[in-house]
Amino acid sequence: MATNSKTRPNFVLFLVDDMGFSDIGCYGSEIQTPNLDRMARKGMRFSQMYNYARCCPTRACLLTGAYPHQAGIGHMMENTGSPAYQGFLRDDVVTIAEALKSGGYRTFMSGKWHVGGAYDPTRPDSWRPGEREHPTPRQRGFDRYYGTLDGAGSFFAPHALMKDDSFVDAGAEKENFYYTDAISEQAVGMIEEAADGDDPFFLYVAYTAPHWPLHALPQDIAKYEGLYRKGGWDALRTARHEELKGMGLLDSRWPISPRDSAAPPWEEAGNSDWEDLRMAVYSAQVDRMDQGVGRILAALEASDLDDNTLILFLSDNGGCAEFLSENGWVDRYSDWTPDGRPMTVGNDPTLAPGGPHTFMSYDLPWANASNAPFRLYKHWVHEGGISTPMIAYWPASIQPNQIVHEACHIVDIMPTLLEAAGVGHPAEYNGKAVLPLEGESFLPLLQTGRWSRQSHIFWEHEGNRAVRLGQWKLVSKHADPWELYDMHEDRTELNDLSEKNRPKVEEFAELYHAWADRVGVMPWPLRR
Ligand SMILES: [Ca+2]
Known about the structure:
This protein has 528 residues and is an alpha/beta fold. The protein has helices at residues 34-42, 55-64, 96-102, 170-173, 179-195, 218-221, 232-247, 272-302, 363-370, 383-386, 413-421, 443-448, 502-519, and strands at residues 10-16, 44-50, 106-112, 144-148, 161-163, 166-168, 201-206, 309-315, 344-345, 358-359, 387-393, 402-404, 408-409, 428-429, 432-433, 457-461, 464-469, 472-476, 483-486. The strands form 4 sheets. Strands 1, 2, 3, 4, 5, 6, 7, 8, 11, 12 and 13 form an 11-stranded mixed β-sheet that branches. It has a 4-stranded antiparallel β-sheet with strand order 16-17-18-19, covered by helices on one side. Strand 5 (161-163) and strand 6 form a beta hairpin. The longest helix is centred in the middle third of the chain and has 31 residues, at 272-302. Bound molecules: calcium ion (CA).
């Protein structure tokens, strides 16, 4: 066990928001992500890393090493009255930050929190962060914090930005504010602060890019406008799938899933200039995030910290098919603009997306391309909803340019970081018993390229359910029967074997129900 602070690794954990499996260059994308690609060349790419299908449950699971229901976030932020669905992190789990801080680490966070209870985005003056139902990063183990507590909002004028324990006004802080850049800048400052001391550090960088709204900077949009005009989502899905196969990330025996039945063929879609621009804005959001990763890497290098810093990069869920309509539920996010001019909410083809006075999403057909070659989206636990790229970079311990195919899950990240730090997981914290870790450390995989997960991975989100171990995955959409897939033969989930292999269905279903009972899963839809 390492005890010398000079030899213990630092950690930078990057989480991006609503980005699909094939949206970065080193996972087959045409989007320019040179900094992530460089990390991949010098590090390790995971072809079967899984998240938890949605913002809040993924964050709860990632931060605590427990399943989301055990951490109190079985659905989202609403408190429905049971401990598994209270909407904020429970006090019988510890966060990575709390555990590492107890072990002598300095702890920093820049970006989106979203595990601290529900807020009304239109009434930030009513917020009471720090109250029992609204724990903040500073109350859950982070020494320093910059960012937003809730799930989404304008990139040009986020409501209720916080620095440590106080609200700050984005507009007053800086002209031409853009949230992705602010998250990067603050993270660089935190690295500089950490470099001044002797203690190792943990930095959690939670970008809101490329979650809706489609807000990006004109110089970044210009790099992509027109690129998607020819062939649209159909050509894009095929091109990304071919690249992924060529890179060795996906087996060439797995065919691409058919275009989603709710997406029209590109040639029949209409509004093709507007559609092209929507995808260009999304790509610009990813591009700007990658530029931020580059600034953070440069800050580590400038302080001679990059060699013994373990960096992980991943996304919280698959591409998002949510349609934003005028007078829809999303209205509650949307009333702030930097100059006080009105904002038009909704996917209106007569308006150009990108700027602060629109509030759009890229929609199902482009999300289908983001998740190529897989099926379905954010919310679902088929491969399109839960598959994320993951890059691990740690020059001191990871051999360059490796691809690993073991199925891993975000619940494994906390055990991995604690083992790498030589810090134990506490049985008690603040006088309360703490639930044991659910995941398995994949540190040996990073260090040797060899490791296999021993226990099943389980998912439940909005009644969508799945179980995965090795070759087999059992999965269902809410209210539909179980489907069974042989993931060695059929990662794209096209050949349901549930009728042919009833014993495997029954075995995994029984395990699922035992797990669901144990962690407190309740029937969907939830009743208060
Ligand atoms: Ca998300």
